[in-house]
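quick one
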Amino acid sequence: MSDGLEGVVAAETVLSEVDGQAGRLIIRGHELDELAGRISFEEVTHLLWDGFFDKLPADLAPAIGAARAAVFAEVSALDTGLLDRTPIEAMRALTARLADGDDLEVALRLLAAPAVFTAAVVRAQAGLAPVAPEPALSHAADILRMLRGTTPSKAEADALDTYLVTVADHGLNASTFTARVVASTHAGLGSAVIAGICALKGPLHGGAPGPIIEMLDGIGAKENARDWIQDALARGDRLMGFGHRVYRVRDPRADALKAAVRKMGTGSNVLPGRLDFAEAVEAAALSILKNHKPNRSLQTNVEFYTALLLESLAFPPSAFTCVFAMGRVAGWVAHAREQVAGGRLIRPASTYVGPMPKAAA
Ligand code: ACO
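structure w/ acetyl coenzyme *A:
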């Protein structure tokens, strides 16, 4: 048995390849560097979905914009009971109300759902009315507009677009595997996406960036970093934003996102000195982790600079995982379609280690 299924190959995919030794991510034949900051989220969605739907339009942007408008009609189901939940719980509940199915229209609504519902939930929790989507805007620009009520700068929309592209797909990570298991039962794309959201929510997967802000705020100043980190590890805590099941070198997505924060520049919400401070915390963490686990290469993962980027774009930390879902939903849908097209029911075996029944007297 492989603990945590480490190293077990559970699918063949044309979608993405994660090379953990080389620190390389390939999405449908392209290096991450060729995509992040160079093509839009709509285009990377097309890249991922190509071949998995009949009549996929060459330009997906109008269809995604129309899907945002269609999904917005469901925001009225956001009742006060849901507002007591965390943003990801409320967003998941609203997404679960959408009709399930396997066609492109269902897929487009699922793609739009985390974006539209998260913006509405965050605003409602702040006592603000929802802002209807503007279908002609890019997905990234409209997310920020629905969140804040004003059109974002190009630099901000570009930064979010880079983020969504960077996280759109990543091999057989926990949420994508979960989505494929559900898809393998032919339950429908909606069921696969909800399952993906559930797996993403945990702090060992997509729930890490919110706590990273708590860590940075807890450290407060560069000179406190070493003591704070050593105390946390002495308590047995894990440092959020470090370590990965597959990467033994730096996660290539960390640098793509750090570059996106730097590019946003000082004219935006990036707090003055925040990037320098985060880099100092990262350096301290890496040097301490090296001694803490000399036999395990613990490097910066995607979540560390995700936290900085989403903070700079004014998402509340409680909603960071929802923004991850806005990007990863493109990959979940593609993997679910690929699983149904070519895969069997996923049904592994277990080794029974419990007691055996007593022999009949
Ligand atoms: N801080 C401190 N110690 C760590 C960390 C960390 N961030 N990551 C791993 N370790 C330690 C473990 O405690 C373990 O020690 P042990 O052998 O003494 O028990 C050893 O390193 C190996 O860790 P595993 O849990 O076996 O590694 P695994 O591959 O299962 O975990 C994971 C990967 C979950 C990402 C882990 O590194 C972690 O918990 N990181 C912090 C949370 C985080 O950043 N999550 C986001 C991941 S990126 C993503 O999913 C998008």
